[in-house]
Amino acid sequence: MNRIMKGAAIIAIVACLVSAATAADSKRMKITVANYQMEPTDPNGEMLKFYGDKFGCDFTVVNINHDQYHELLNIKLSAGEIPDLLYLRHADTLGTYVKQGVLAKLSPELIQKNAPDLWKAITVNAKGYMEMGKVNGVQYAIPAVNPTNIFRLPLVYRTDWMKKLGVTKTPETLAEFESLMYKFAKNDPDGDGKADTYGFSKDGLNAVFGAFGVVPFDAETDYWMLENGKVINDTVSSGAKQALAVLAKYYKDGIIDPEFITGENQGGYWALSHAFIKGRIGYSSHGNYYHWQTAGAYQSPQEDGSMVPCPAFANGQELIAATPTATLGFGLPLKGPTGKQGMKQYNRLSNFFCIGKLAESDPAKVAKILQILNVSADPDFVTRNSIHYGPKDKYWKLLDADTESWLNIPPYDKDSGYWSRIGGELWMEVPLPPKGPREQWAYRNNMDKYGIESLIQIGLPKAMKYKAELMKIRDEAYLSIITGDKPASYFDEFVTKYMAAGGAEVQQESNEYYASLK
Amino acid sequence: MPNTATDRSGDNVRRTKATVGLARRYWDNRYLLILMLPGLIYFVVFKYVPIYGLIIAFKDYNFFQGVWNSPWVGLEVFKELFKTPSFWEVFRNTIIISGLEFIFGFPAPIVFALLLNEVVNVGAKKAFQTISYLPHFVSWVILGGLFLQFFSPSIGPINIALKALGAKPIYFLADPKWFRAVLVSTDIWKAIGWGSIIYLAALSSIDPELYEAAALDGAGRWARTRYITLPSLYPVITIMLILATGNLVSDNFDQVFNLYNSAVYSVGDVMSTYMYRKGLEGMEYSSAAAVGLFNNIISFTLVIMANKIVKHFNEYGIW
Amino acid sequence: MKRKPIAAKKLKPSDAPFTIVNYAIMIMLSITTLYPFIFLITSSFSALDMSLGGLSIIPRQFTFSNYERVFANPNVGIGYRNTIIRTILGTSLSLLVTFCLAYALSKKTFPNRNLWTGLVVFTMFFSGGMIPSYLLVKNLKLIDSMWALILPELVSAYNFVIVRNYMQTIPQSLEESAKIDGANDITIMFRIILPVCKPILATIALWVAVWHWNAWFDCMVYISSQKGQVMQLVMRRIVMLGSSDQLTQMEGQSHDFFTPEGIKAATILVATVPIVCVYPFIQKYFVKGVLVGSLKG
User: Could you list the residue range(s) of the whole structural domain that residue B248 is in?
Assistant: First the structure.
């Protein structure tokens, strides 16, 4: 017991010493930062020192665990601890924080002046996204736009099954898709003599919805679109209605895996499609494109200039492990009967970066924070990679400048959280076009084409308020139509119910917001 | 409270004013008072000082203004909550699922402890006991993945057995008729070993001579259980029963969240999962506080009522 | 019927069906409850994702590398140290304070006994929530201190009620002889009540220890330094890394952004096995006839 008490006392003393050491040199500007992190940051982190000297200020990283970020941030805000630079993990929360008065006002001019590279990177590569940081016309936030979410979901087929069934090319239209799916389900593509295969499962629904130009059934996100000049939720669109009728037919004919409700993944790594790997279905769009990478799908440059084939990953790896003769191929999004062609693409808006209210009265501080953020968009790759991953040649080495390929130096290659410890939190995500070999491979497979994005990606107050309720109504209606519990004509009744339960209010709000952007 | 103070103080209490009498009684119990003090200080400082946070349920909570300065909204948060169409559905689901878990899940560890008590071989008994409490340490995230396969219509062992018997496979996790049964049975399975520990502790205080005497009288296994084992468990069963009534309005978020899907919302969506989907990571402080308060008032009332009822049967209640 | 006292413990022919059924139930239950653990163990020695092995428990590509990775992580050592300290310190203090409080309030002679008990029970249902608690801990200057993990949940009202209830079943006669000898309440509590309460205290100790061992949220809120992280938090970080929830936060281009299932399983086991092993030690306090022994002694 005594020893334990001593241990506790020592920990306390060490903690005191550490905080005392950082308190020295009080003349410099102090900036507190709350950003995404994998591990708590060392107050004396190498990067904090380096950039502190560079910008003439002292950084304090507020350690907030990534999962439960907002809950923990809010507790600190309640105690009056408002970070000077804070990131909003869920873009949906911006409105709430503005309403609560914890964020400083910015302006496009201020950002443009102090963070020109960042401004350019966002406004050029992600048009319209800077405006998403506005609430009631005032810029409160800089959007972090995901650079690789320019790629839509993949459409993946079992090409060895196709070959066996005499189909030579991946479907391009819904009609071709339909004929292939019926063959997958009815013509015993695995040749085991049993009727144990289906066309597709849960994630396959997206292909059909996409052929009607909609993403109406996403588990977490509402997608918004323009129909007849009005902003509407994809969920109540005419495209969704038509797609549901098609899906109900497929389900009735045994084309859709009857276990689609619980999904294609059955535990383990989330991106695995067990149904696909185990040869139960012949089409999927589970995960992202890189979860379907087979060995040698593309070549990666090495330090010495040579090229090596990439390893297989996730589904690409497991499928071959389960069935060595299996092959897979990517198809284009399907063209539907109404001429629409598309596939779900994740929102490119990831997070927001904001400045805390307490810094608002100090323009020099605001300017400095923006200058720091600008480093993340520096034209020089080494500079912008260093602010996140530490100095080059100590933590990482550049393999190839053209494709911006780099690799962590051991032991950091097996230590994914090291950058948080040394203070790599002065970084934000910037939508510069990705150049890596894997992304080139995605371009070659047209992953950047025909993606369906949501017109509105932020959380408006009414949409937030009714979201859970409306999604519940939607899920119940959609499932009952697909499984045939209700006829396809039930859709109109569902829309009436949906609109009455708050859908109409949300739609009006969305139209007003959209109009205000013009 | 009747005057049960020790003999010495008896006269004093009658002679002096009530307050002085009370002080005197505390003085007489000064050693107990010293023993109570650390606990008392703890509850005052760590439980009663922060209790003002309850008022968040009656305010439009604002981080910047804090608990005290946020504007009052009276019962607005509650009204808004009760108006939400799904609120009563999820509340009903919560009560039905908790009720079933209470009916089947409360006796389960007791029965298990009794059965374990009948295992004569000490080594086997210890092994069963230890193994049975393992699931308590496995999180629902992991169990969720395993149950998904276990209950699968195509590859799950239950359905393989059903199909072998010529029955139609059941889609347990997506069938509203079965989903609650899945929740209740997996909950019992996970908690049975862990829950039995308290009863096993109580069983250890039974005098073995009682069993020997009963055996001499020719009492069988059932008679011994009925007349010796069970009565000695009454106090702990009573108190656990009272405390368990407080859980009738609470639900198990991790379990439901990892097992449910939109096809079973109508029977399986509970308060915590609904609130989770409604408010991002606790952005809705006031409604979360209101739901909490609403639940706790019901729990508290239930426990007090259970305690009252129990008092008619035995003396082992809380008060 | 003539029978020796010991015969009661022996298997009688009439008991055979019951015993067989009982063992069958026990074995079946044990298989199902053991399964998830075995699955985790297999998974931790498997290089590939076990979810694809169906419900099989044979490793897919046997390897030790998962454990090598886990133990190479410097945070695991830090986490272990903090968790062990908080568990031992927290459990001992909790037991002491709970026991004293329960004893005082179990005495019928104690004035306003029901009022005090009521005040404790009240906290089981009503609390101010996270924000006032954080402010309190901050004002007490406990942030980043081990005490922030021990003091805020020092006594559980639930455990208090159970210990107190157990004490009330102890026959009065046990204390009376000591009272006559002039012993005070504190002496009686430690000399006479404590030995009798061993089984219930062992149970509570197990509950509190397991609670402390598994707690992470308080550490997340009150401790911000790397050196103060507890094992469960270290484990959570490893296990949650690259879960679909973090999709929106695309971290770099490397595949290392997610934790493979084998490493997850190894981490979970490393974080769980020590506390699971505590139970057999607790079991020895569940010795038949504790109360009887004290009565006679």
Answer: 76-311
Q: What is the pTM of this model?
A: 0.90
Say whether both B100 and B239 belong to one domain: yes
Evaluate whether residue B316 is within a structural domain.
no
Question: Is there a contact between A214 and A240 (Cβ–Cβ < 8 Å)?
Answer: yes
Restricting to C residues 52-91, those with a Cβ less than 8 Å away from any Cβ of B are 54-55
ipTM: 0.89
CA A433 remoteness from chain centre: 16
Sorted by where each starts, the structural domains of chain A and their CATH numbers stand as 2-148+348-434 (3.40.190.10), 155-344 (3.40.190.10)
Q: Which of residues 321-380 of A touch B (CB under 8 A)?
A: 357
Is B146 in Cβ contact with A258 (below 8 Å)? no
Which of A72, A270, A278 faces C220 most closely, judged by CB atoms? A72
**Chain B: residue nearest A466 by CA?**
B278
- Cβ–Cβ gap B152/A71 under 8 Å: no
Same domain, B148 and B182: yes
Task: Spell out the domains of chain C, with CATH numbers in brackets.
Answer: 76-296 (1.10.3720.10)
Q: Are residues B192 and B239 in the same domain?
A: yes
CB-based contact B134 C40, cutoff 8 Å? no
Of A390, A384, A382, A358, the residue nearest A372 (C-alpha): A384
Task: Output the six-digit token pair for B238.
Answer: 């009573």
Q: Identify whether residues B14 and B125 lie together within a single domain.
A: no
User: What's the count of helices (H) and strands (E) in chain B, helices before strands?
Assistant: 18, 0
Instruction: Tell me how far apart the alpha carbons of residues A314 and A319 are, in angstroms, rounded to a whole number.
Output: 8
pLDDT tens digit at each of 518 positions of chain A:
455 555 555 555 544 444 444 444 457 999 999 999 988 999 999 999 999 999 999 999 999 988 889 999 999 999 999 999 999 998 989 999 999 999 999 999 999 999 999 999 999 999 999 999 999 999 999 999 999 899 999 999 999 999 999 999 999 999 999 999 999 999 999 999 999 999 999 999 999 999 999 999 998 899 999 999 999 999 999 999 999 999 999 999 999 999 999 999 988 888 999 999 999 999 999 999 999 999 999 999 988 889 999 999 999 999 999 999 999 999 999 999 999 999 999 999 999 999 999 999 999 999 999 999 999 999 999 999 999 999 999 999 999 999 999 999 988 888 888 999 999 999 999 999 999 999 999 999 999 999 999 999 999 999 998 999 999 999 999 999 999 999 999 999 999 999 999 999 999 999 999 999 87
Q: Write down the residue that tokens 């915590």 correspond to.
A: B272
Same domain, B46 and B106: no
The number of beta carbons lying within 10 Å of the beta carbon of residue B241 is: 19
Chains A–B, number of C-beta pairs less than 8 Å apart: 89
